[in-house]
Hints:
Shape: elongated
Radius of gyration: 22 Å
Strand order of the largest sheet: 1-2-3-4-5-6-8-7
Largest sheet: 8 strands, mixed
Amino acid sequence: MTLMPAFDRVTLDTARLQLRPLVPADAAALLAIHADAEVMRYSNTPPWTSVDQAQALIDRDLKGMATGRHLCLGIVPAGEGSVVGTCTLFGLDRISRRAELGFALGRFAWGRGWMNEALTALAAFGFEHMQLNRLEADIDPRNRASARTLLRLGFRQEGLLRERWIVDGEVSDTAFYGLLRSDWAPSRFTGRVPDGHGASVSPRIARLTAGHAPAYRSLMLHAYAQAADAFTSTPQERAAEPDTWWVRRIADPQGGSVAFGAFSGDELVGSVALEFSDKPKTRHKVHLIGMFVRAEHRGTGAGRALVAAALEHAQSRAGVRAVTLTVTAGNEPALALYRAFGFQLFGTEPMAILTPSGFQSKLHLWKALDDCP
């Protein structure tokens, strides 16, 4: 299977970012990033000193992307024009369907989850559109921030090469990380850093109980208001529902629905629910609904962990063979998330809902539970 012949027109949009090819006007922003000694602390090159270095990188990347040798995208926050970092797939091996992953982020953009969000989109593009089988990354083992970023994505540390780099006279080791296409599968992703690599980097996932109903109500009313195009219900409709409705939604005593929550400390910051059918002809299906993570907690792996928990529960229910869901057309981050779990599109419903921004179509997706690893 061959990779895409050229990447010079690739643009990826996430909830908060746009990943786009670099342009000559990005030179000053790139220099500001790569001239920072803190950003370059564990790089295999010393800090930059001239805008000519930035322009040389842009020229090289544009030529490499036009010929399909590698894919380098600038990271731009939505609604802004300046590049805050880059993410790259390079060293492409077409026969083995393998690529190396590189990334850099300006210090002023640290701590916002942007790199995780960008690399999630880039990895999904690599596995789904380029049909890669393996991604590799080479980092300084002292670079704990990059290690955490890779581990959030599901990478595993596979080896250590001693004294591999000498930069400005400083000798350093290399830690090798790898991510297989099969590692990208939902049941392999926990959303947590493995033991020995630091604390959890993703909210804790737990099944919701009746006691969580007030927090769940607050979260979802926020979701209906902030993501009006994503949901069929309005906040006004749901605010009028009695407390018993919210309890049934997350912990139906009859087993008709269950929900899982993502917690940051004691705060509920995300959720997803499953609705089961009691009809003989449709009880083999379950519908995934109400998927939402607060904006400030996106890019932490919470969404993946929630979907993984929901699928695991669905698979444990006797007789359930398939999961269905809907996504508003144009919601590419959600679509990429579900496709990473193996969901397939089977239809589009035009003018499915009317929202403040106009009519929205709904994409219908499904997944057979038989193919869950």
